[in-house]
Design brief:
The chain is mostly helical. It has one domain (4-119): Four Helix Bundle (Hemerythrin (Met), subunit A). It is 74% helix and 0% strand. Helix 2 packs across helix 5 and helix 5 packs across helix 6 (98-119). It starts with a helix and ends with a helix.
Length: 123
């Protein structure tokens, strides 16, 4: 199972990916933000002692954990929004403007990142 640090590094790689593609491919950029958030959540979950919690295999389980664990509840709405945007970009072919995706980073992703980094002691 990946460690907290491995998930955290993967999140950073997804943020780098977002930066690389946001101007030309905002649909992929929003997908990168979702996966950056996913790996931030998994980094924190990897610090827990229950195996199923440490590395959720399914998005559904992860979302349920975010909604149930008091430490993660503050990010629930933002996480679900990013998950929805990523799904819409990948499967529904919804168009996202670079301006919209940049705003999404500031208003949706950045609060997730701040909250998780606080929980991980990285802020």
């Amino acid at each position: 199972m990946p460690t907290k640090d491995q998930h955290y590094k993967k999140s950073k790689k997804n943020i780098d990916f977002y930066e690389d593609v946001v101007d030309l491919h905002p649909d992929w950029a929003v997908t990168g933000l979702f996966y950056a958030a996913l790996h931030l959540v998994d980094a924190w979950l990897a610090t827990k002692t229950i195996t199923a919690v440490q590395h959720p295999e399914r998005h559904e389980f992860r979302v349920n954990m975010i909604g149930k664990l008091s430490e993660l509840k503050p990010i629930y709405s933002n996480y679900r929004m990013l998950q929805d945007y990523g799904h819409r970009a990948r499967y529904k072919m919804d168009a996202f403007s670079k301006e919209n995706v940049r705003d999404t980073r500031k208003t949706v992703f950045d609060p997730i990142q701040k909250e998780i980094e606080t929980l991980l002691g990285k802020s």
